[in-house]
Amino acid sequence: MPSNEAGPTAVPAWRRASLCASGECVEVAQKDDVIILRDSVQPRGRMLYYDAGPWRSFVRAIKTGRYDSLGS
Length: 72
Description:
- This protein is of the alpha+beta class.
- It has one domain (11-64).
- It is built from one helix and four strands; from the N terminus they run ββββα.
- The protein has one helix at residues 52-63; strands at 5-6, 26-31, 34-39, 48-51.
- The chain has a four-stranded mixed β-sheet.
- The longest helix has 12 residues, at 52-63.
């Protein structure tokens, strides 16, 4: 299985959700041990950086439904 991790000097491999039909989505990449988020409409705009550990915890919480009640 190919890895989404970029090498130390490589350009990050950006990914977006397969359900992003409009093209106006958040894109995510990993470089070293940092997760990077950007707006797909403005790919050269501001980016957000997160340590991989807390990011994994956040994703795990989403998958278990921890934040489902926020939209209600």
